[in-house]
Amino acid sequence: MITRLRAVDGIMLDFDSSVPCLVATHVGFVTSEEFRNHCEFSLQAISQKVAEHGKVAWVTDLRKAEIFSDDDVKWINEYWNLQAYAKGLQYSAMIKAKNTFAAINLEDMVEEHNRRKDLMVFRLFSDMDSATEWCKEMLAQ
């Protein structure tokens, strides 16, 4: 069952209890302020859902997203990922953007993540079904 937790212009956060995972869907362009506010809200949701379910995964759906600022990509890598991991998030599936510029942002983020050797596991996907199936497998371990 999927429950909408939050929706603002360009970003939705849902919870899929069948996995269990949080799903952040990005549509179009979002300002840095809106993006970071949504990310801060999502940290609270991670804490709540980990407390309720023991483990949760994260899915970011970027298929309809537009470009993110370099500062926001850096902020995700240096702040948000570390905070999310500290709150219990271990697995993050990312669905690739169709927009070329957003796809480059995603590749840069994953490259930086891998360079830093952060503990959270990231994996790229082209569709939602593959992403959520991988999340289920990871959480079952």
Describe the structure.
This protein is of the alpha/beta class and 141 residues long. The chain has a single domain (2-140), classed as SpoIIaa-like domains (Rossmann fold), CATH 3.40.50. Helices cover 49% and strands 28% of the residues. The chain is built from 4 helices and 6 strands, in the order βββαβαβαβα. It has helices at 32-53, 70-86, 100-116, 128-140; strands spanning 2-8, 11-16, 21-28, 57-65, 91-95, 121-125. A 6-stranded mixed sheet has the order 1-2-3-4-5-6, sandwiched between helices.
Give keywords.
6-stranded mixed β-sheet, Rossmann fold, 49% helix, alpha/beta, 28% strand, 141 residues
Structural class: alpha/beta
Helix-strand topology string: EEEHEHEHEH
Average pLDDT figure = 89
Sheet-strand content, in percent, reads 25-35%
Approximate helicity band: 40-55%
| Most strands sheet | 6 strands, mixed
Biggest β-sheet: strands ordered side by side in the sheet: 1-2-3-4-5-6
Q: How many domains comprise the coordinates?
A: 1
- The rounded Rg comes to 14 Å
CATH-derived architecture: 3-Layer(aba) Sandwich
Under CATH at level 1, the class stands as Alpha Beta
Q: State the helix count.
A: 4
| Separation of the first and last Cα atoms | 22 Å
- Assembly state of the chains shown: single chain
Global outline: globular
Fourth CATH level, the homologous superfamily: SpoIIaa-like domains
What is the CATH topology? Rossmann fold
The count of DSSP E runs of length 2 or more, i.e. the number of strands, is: 6
Low-confidence stretches: none
